[in-house]
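Researcher: Here's my situation. A collaborator sent me these components and asked whether they could plausibly form a single complex. I don't have experimental data yet, so a predicted model of the whole assembly would be a useful starting point for our discussion.
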Amino acid sequence: MANKSILDSALRAAVNVGSSKLPTEVAKSSAALLSSLSETKHTLPDLAYDYNALEPAISAETMTLHHSKHHNTYVTNLNATIEKIDSAMIAGDVSATIALQGALKFNGGGHINHTLFWENLCPDSKYKGDGVLAEAINERFGSLDKVKAELGASTIAVQGSGWGWLGFNPKTGKIDIATLPNQDPLEASTGLKPLLGIDVWEHAYYVDYRNVRPDYVNAIWDIINWDVVESRLVAAKG
Amino acid sequence: MRSIVLYYIAFVCFPEVWRTATAAIIKGDDYDDDHFELDPLPYTFDALEPYISEKTLRIHHGKHHAKYVNTLNSLIKGNPEFDSISDLVQLMVESRESNKAVFNNAAQAWNHAFYWSCMTPESDDPPGSLERILEESFGSFDEFKNQFADAGNSAFGSGWAWLVYDAAEEDFFVMHTIGADNPHAMNRTWFPMLTMDVWEHAYYLDYQNRRPSYTSTFLENLVNWEFVNEKLQDIVRDGPANLDETENDSAEGDEIEDENESNAEL
């Protein structure tokens, strides 16, 4: 492992030093070598529960499609995009590197968001009325019900594809609600540290709720893993 | 009775008013009594099977499209800025910068109505005249289809793929818009010729995550090329008319004349 990471760093250093444009073939094979050596190839995370565990709020059919197709595609495309970016960087092609940023944000964001999402869902949701999370909620919103109302409303109101978030604001030390379009990741886009994410792309609910997004958002409260939300808050507060 | 008298007075004394009122009446099938209406599909709900299921069309038209129309009506009611506008295109164009909620619903109402017209159960090979016109802009008809498919497949999230006529450049191009956005609302010299809905609700029940499969099926099996060809031929021959697909009433005729006049000045 140690050898691998030394070689990895050396290769990356070589990439960044290189302002001389390598021949395309060399650049491509270097990028492929880099990706295979590097420990940053992303993989689809396993769920902590079975596909049918979140019923009736979310069906096994949705979970199967959502995890093994949609999320998996983001992972595959993220890895492919990173390889292309590596290749462009090795070749010193700034323009091509920049052109790939959209795909990076979309697929990288998709991978980040969905990984967070699976973790903040669970079959038996339990909310402790006390502790770090409850304190933060009561201070900022008054009660859990108020969070559900506000976060629910904002999330439902997202136009088109996007996510609703509860996040921790490291500047104010308080928790906040935010919504973002497409797969824009919360922390990279806003600085808020993600605590709880709700996917409102139509693929998240269409099989089970058709166009009735409010029913989906109302049902999702039954399967929120508040323990994970709290441990994220504790970690975010540092 | 009162409205007949007023109509007569308008006809005699105020030709402009009469023309506008007549245009509103002719367009009456989608605007009536201060509110917009949901037009029925140009075909039955099962007409596009097996490419788009009856289930999808019932929900897409009867829930999604209907909701945009209903929400639009409730938003503009009593709103002095918008409630006297009876033309959906005008409403869409005027609200784009000033009122996001009105715009989203007006544009989605228009986009969906246009989308239904772009499809047909009797999709046939495109007419030679259509292929020739698109060859000029794209090099080949296949290249146009590739670009259109790419536009649909590469749109991150919800949006639309479009074939657009640029009246300033007198050329065609392909683009995608995000969410509810509409090319003509973005730029008054752009006129949509064909659209494809790539919001997930358009294809999820039938294709799930396989958007490219929906996109290629749309192009190969669903497009109403006759309809698209008529629009293309009209706009290339006569210049841009009213964006709406309605009959050539006098209001539309005037607009074409003005267009030709200003072109002559150039």
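Model: Some features of this prediction you could bring to your collaborator: The longest strand of chain A covers residues 162-169. The first helix of chain A runs from residue 2 to 17.
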